[in-house]
Amino acid sequence: MAPPAIRWDRVERRYGTVVAVDGVTLTIDTGAFVALVGASGSGKSTLLRMVNRLVPPGAGQVLVGGADVASGPAPALRRRIGYVFQHIGLFPHMTVAQNIAIGPKLAGDPPADVGRLLDLVELPRAVATRMPAELSGGQRQRVGIARALAPGAKLLLLDEAFGALDPVTRDALGRRLRALHDELGLTTVLVTHDMAEALLLATRVVVMAAGRIVADETPGALLAGAGGDAAQALVGVPRAQAARLAELVP
Ligand SMILES: Nc1ncnc2c1ncn2[C@@H]1O[C@H](COP(=O)(O)OP(=O)(O)OP(=O)(O)O)[C@@H](O)[C@H]1O
């Protein structure tokens, strides 16, 4: 049987007296789209950063494709993992095309097919020659996703990648991400504060609180009431909003 895409095995991480991640064991199967949801400070980013070795675990082990992430060189690991942050950090002095192509170029790999990558994230090919400052926030996030996919990564990690976008752009980009996930056969982990986004995009929703996993359910099961109090409190927010909106209909 093929190893899972990611496995955190009894992982811990402390910062002084703060226990950011408190003994997490979690397996992400290849092809899954997992949303990691929870209040600010619950440990989501720390858990995600362990996957590409931005943060080493204080205890436990993180495996990608069955291999301990600590065992090989970090650059080789990171080439297999696309990572998208809220503040995407495009290189301001490089064009969009140069930004997208930087990963394969630095690795000495064949050049990225920038046109195809722009097509994938639904940006016009003409933006290839623009500078990042000439793009909207949503366009910049699309470039960030294209750059993350450029080395041919099959594992995509997104940390509040849509956090700074207006709701319409955010919704469109979320849908595009889900379509890309399906088209390219990706394994995707999306950290988000937004339970509605998690329920609409993911195949599985993992809820964190105080460094621990408190629920791990499908969207359907969560909507049917599973997952316990912390999860249901989060599900209750979009549900109550939908009910209040429905009441406004004359
Ligand atoms: N580099 C660091 N130094 C000290 N404390 C840290 C560091 N990184 C994270 N923490 C602490 O660890 C805890 C978990 O943080 P983390 O960023 O993983 O949470 P999060 O769920 O991703 O939060 P948010 O949704 O606000 O991004 C928090 O209490 C945070 O203050």
UniProtKB/TrEMBL annotation:
Record keyword Translocase present: no
Start and end residues of each ABC transporter domain: 6-235
A Pfam family matched in the record: ABC_tran
MF annotations from Gene Ontology: ATP binding
Keyword entries, A-Z: ATP-binding, Nucleotide-binding, Transport
Protein's name in the database: ABC transporter ATP-binding protein
Gene source species: Sphingomonas cynarae
